[in-house]
Design goal:
With 286 residues, the protein is of the alpha/beta class. The protein has a single domain (4-275), classed as Ribonuclease Z/Hydroxyacylglutathione hydrolase-like (Metallo-beta-lactamase, Chain A, 4-Layer Sandwich), CATH 3.60.15. The chain contains 7 helices and 17 strands. It is globular and about 50 Å long. The chain starts with a strand and ends in an 11-residue tail after the last helix. 49% of the residues are buried. Mean pLDDT is 90; it is low at 5-13.
């Protein structure tokens, strides 16, 4: 059965919700408006929860995440996936843990040693919080949630080399894309991002955190191991450091969501790549 995607806008709560429905139930996805940061809640048909990233520190993002969890009826976070350790992805994690139980943590392991943004204080708190209930994911690892198939495809600058269902074809879009010079980036933990593909029946979505341009090429070229997806969360908030055609055009998403803010992301080149992507069911007007 073809997956059905329904988009709901709940502006007062700072949430965009999507439903993926098959003959066996509904997967609920809540994109929480952390205004250029990232936090996404997945709620399985059996009520199991997966929260990806926790936005920035401060009352705004924390409040929106907590409100979303309450609206979804979540009493505990069964799985907390951290893509990488920058403050716009982990800022509310420690404060959130004081308001709701977190049962298990997933991440890419040690931060990149040259990153100048990762907070040592956060890492210390995170080590304490996650002790005894932490998984450092490797490409190919699974998150066990009933009814869902969640596969890590990137982690610590390593990428899946086996084919997911529908993957394995040569990626023609790679021929039009060149690697970039990323040597001057002050925030290389972006490239360490732990990303996954989530499948529910025939519905598929992908979240690669802030994986940068060259990492996208390492993941997708010359062979597209992933195949296509229904729903694509744009890499890296829609910054031009990510979002290559080699990734987006090969994935051929039906729906794209961009977690940009008023002064971050959503760059013209990124919009162009998304706009030109084959498969979009309703293209934005130029």
């Amino acid at each position: 059965m073809r997956a059905v995607i329904v988009i709901m806008l709940v502006l007062t709560a700072g949430i965009m919700g999507l439903l993926a429905q098959t003959g066996t139930g509904t997967l609920n996805i809540y994109y929480i408006d952390t205004e250029g940061r990232q936090s996404t809640l997945f709620l399985s048909p059996t009520g199991e929860s997966l929260l990806v990233d926790t936005g920035n520190a401060g009352d705004r993002d924390l409040g929106r995440i907590v409100d979303t969890l309450k609206a979804a009826g979540v009493k505990q976070i069964d799985h907390l996936w951290t893509t990488h350790y920058h403050g716009d992805h982990v800022g509310s994690l420690v404060a959130l843990s004081k308001q709701i139980p977190i049962m298990h943590f997933y991440d890419h392991g040690k931060p990149h040693p040259n990153d100048r943004i990762v907070s040592a204080a956060f890492l210390s708190s995170y080590e304490e919080l996650s002790q005894g209930k932490r998984t450092i994911v490797k490409p190919g690892d699974k998150v066990k949630m009933a009814g869902l198939d969640i596969t890590a495809v990137a982690s610590a600058n390593q990428f899946i080399r086996s084919n997911l269902p529908g993957g394995g074809r040569q990626n023609a879009a790679c021929m039009r894309v060149q690697k970039k010079d990323e040597s001057a980036y002050m925030d290389p933990d972006n490239g360490e991002s732990a990303g996954f593909v989530l499948a529910y029946g025939r519905f598929r979505t992908i979240d690669l955190g802030d994986l940068t341009w060259n990492g996208e090429l390492d993941l997708m070229c010359p062979t597209n191991r992933i195949g296509t997806v229904d729903l694509y969360l744009t890499s890296h908030h829609g910054l031009a450091k990510s979002g290559s055609a080699a990734l987006v055009h090969a994935l051929q998403p039906r729906v794209a969501v961009m977690n940009n803010g008023t002064r971050k992301g959503g760059e013209p080149d990124t919009f162009r790549v998304v706009y030109e992507s084959p498969g979009l069911e309703d293209r934005p007007r130029p």
